[in-house]
Amino acid sequence: MAMLALTFDDGPDPEWTPRLLDVLRDAGAVATFFPIASRAAAHPCVISRILADGHEVGLHCEDHARHSRRSIEWGRRDTARALRLLGSVGVRPTLWRTPWGATAPWSHLVARENRLRIVRWTVDTHDWRGDAAGQMFRATRPRLRPGAIVLAHDGIGPGAKRTDARETVAYTRLIVEHASDAGLELRPAA
Prior knowledge:
This protein has 190 residues and is an alpha/beta fold. It is built from 7 helices and 8 strands; from the N terminus they run βαβααβαβαββαβαβ.
């Protein structure tokens, strides 16, 4: 069966991530979560549920900053802090989604040093803007094909123009239905 990857950044959120997990569980879908490490450490029960439900947890960051604006020394420190925090909740990631997808010449070196693979996306929901689920689905539907990696957010990250992830949960319901109709299996971004 052809695969479609759902990925969620900037969580976990103690209210919205569990609602999202319910949608994924009901559909038998598996996703990849890229949490902000301090949020993961602050909500270990949510991370435990993500793992127990069979989802992948990757590295996002500790400080949600663009790599292109930082030094390699900063990158190594931020990565080490984030990996320690994730380790404290039982996560040893192999995947890394850099904040905003921005990289610097040093990003891939730091990834290799930590045995991480940088994962980008091919479909951006722009859910951080607060768009309605139907609007996001109509905008992304043409690109929801085998091998696509969908970017959404289960948390409210820096720069977000929304106050909750309600529309992301609703969008996820729509994409789950679409995947079923299109014969696509929702799997992690591995």
